[in-house]
Amino acid sequence: MNSRKFTKLTQAHLWKGRLALLWAVASLVMVPVGQTAETINPLLREFSITVDATALVPPTSWNVPGVTPLIYTMDPISSEALTTTAVKELRLNPGQYQFGTYTFNFPFTVSRMGLLQFDSSLDQCVKGRGTHRLNVLCSHTQPYPQQPDY
To answer: With a threshold of 0.85, does the pTM exceed it?
Structure first.
C-alpha cells in the first residue's frame, strides 16, 4: 500500500512538473497582443528614412546608389531619378550609404536603431544626426555663397 501511495504521488509530481515546464515554454514563445516577435536579424530590419533636399537651389536630381535610380547614367530630362523638389521617404537597412547630387555628395550611416549618423564637418550643410530625417541644405560642400558651376 505504501508503494501505491508513493507511485501516485510521484505521478502527480511528474504531471505538475510537465505542466510547469509547458507553461514556461509557452510563456517564452507567446507574444503579447499588439506586439511582434523581434526575431529578425537587426541588420536586415528596414527603417523609414526621410530625405529632404528641398532647400537646394536651383532644384537638381539626387540619388542614393543602390537604393534610388542613379543620376549619372540616364538622360536628365527623361530620368526616373529623384529631384529636390519633393521630400522622399526611403526604406533603408542599417549600413553605410552615399547621398549625391551633381555637385555635392557625402556618406551617411543608418545605425541598428535606424538613426542617421554623418561626419560633423557636414553640420552646416546637413542636419538630422540621431534622427530619421536627413535634411540637405547646401548644394556644395562649403556653404559659402558662390556662383553656380554651370
So the answer is: no
